[in-house]
Design brief:
224 residues, alpha/beta, Arc Repressor Mutant, subunit A, 2 domains, 15% strand
């Protein structure tokens, strides 16, 4: 009989199925330590899991995260998974009730170690560093956002997703904690890559290429 503890049960939450599927795939090699039992896109978590990993792609961040809705009356600890590692943003998320905050710069093994530390009761936050450049993402995290096959960086894809949702540049800047100039830079880069020049075209392109949030839930069958 093995003395190893059972793996931590994890639910992954985001409004984009491709995003949560990508994160789950990155964690799959570590199933003896963490077991993904639920993937939720635009639906509350219904499984009694140990941890909820909240991916911020195209979603509210910082103190805007609705932790009560995520937990849905359960006991799970919430861990935020984001490119945004600004210390003030991290502080607000933790003050709001998140138990940990992981940078998307981490490779999968670092993610697993962070989740385990949160479960042990540690408050996990990114180490002090320069802001992460999503175009230099770790190889293990490639392909976890819509539009990657068209050459869009994670940030460019996120901005296109928010445009598709109908947000203005000012609203995108507030939601992503980017400067308005940074938002405009990402928009120009994205438009160039997908061959468009106007916002209306971006909305249509986004709707045709998987940038509308989708609703889905995947549950793993209980182990016997």
């Amino acid at each position: 009989m093995s003395d190893s503890p059972p793996p931590l049960s994890v639910a992954i939450v985001n409004d984009y199925e491709i995003v949560i599927a990508g994160v789950a795939a990155a964690l799959a090699p570590f199933s003896e330590r963490v077991r993904v039992v639920e993937l939720d896109s635009q639906l509350p978590v219904i499984s009694d899991v140990d941890l909820i990993l909240y991916d911020t792609f195209g979603q509210v961040q910082g103190d805007g995260i609705d932790l009560e809705t995520l937990v849905n009356g359960g006991r799970a600890k919430v861990v935020v998974f984001s490119w945004n590692v600004d210390p003030d943003l991290v502080d607000r998320a933790l003050a709001r009730g998140a138990s940990g905050y992981l940078s998307k710069e981490l490779k999968a093994e670092g993610m697993v170690a962070g989740l385990e530390a949160v479960w042990r009761g540690e408050t996990v936050r990114p180490a002090p560093q320069q802001p992460v450049d999503p175009t230099q993402a770790a190889a293990s995290m490639r392909g976890v956002w819509p539009g990657h096959e068209h050459g869009l960086s994670a940030r460019e894809a996120e901005v296109v997703a928010l445009i598709t949702q109908g947000l203005s540049n000012d609203e995108i800047a507030k939601m992503t904690y980017l400067s308005i100039n940074s938002v405009k830079t990402y928009i120009r880069g994205a438009y160039r890559k997908i061959g468009i020049s106007r916002r209306s075209q971006a909305v249509i392109w986004g709707m045709q290429h998987g940038f509308e949030p989708n609703t889905s839930r995947v549950l793993e069958a209980p182990r016997t």
